[in-house]
User: What shape does this take?
Amino acid sequence: MNIKSIITAALAVLVSTACSGGAKQEKVMNKEGKTIVVFFSHAGDNYAVGNIEVGNTKIVADYITELTGAEQFEIVTHKYDGMAYNPLIKLAQEETRNGELPEYEGDIDLSEYDTVFIGGPVWWGTYPQVMFTFFKKHADDLKGKTVIPFTTHEGSGLANCVEDVKKAFPGAFVQKGFSIYGHEVRTERAKVEKWIKGLGY
Assistant: This one.
């Protein structure tokens, strides 16, 4: 075998390996299985939309539920209730820096679900720390399941959320995710519909 043939064969192996690795992350979802939307949403004083009764992420979670027939589990903590935006952001920064894990109310058994949407606002480059409390408690529960991150934001996009979900659930098939501006969620349902349709629902 000449040098050219050896190089060609080596490249073929590399391409095959790369493609198979990519296929793991793009596993086809089981549409016949059960789906749930797990999310944290902050009502009250929010950047760009003012004082709101329903959090931006809650609205997106409701859209997903309506479009897919999914169930919901909302990660609820009262730690941030009634806080103005600037003090809240300062607290969020401190929690992220210190790796704090605030408690949340209730819990859910994820074993019966095949697809799990995970959503929240972006606070200091990733999801709020209370979501990481949930991640830690359920670190082994999403092996082999399809996980779809989504965020609401005002300029951060997905930030580090997808990578942090991959780290939290290394055995899951984590998709690339979806982000939408918080100030758009009440008027741009069509963007969520387009995304969900692209997933095959």
User: Anything to note?
Assistant: The two ends are 49 Å apart (CA to CA). The chain has one domain: 28-198.
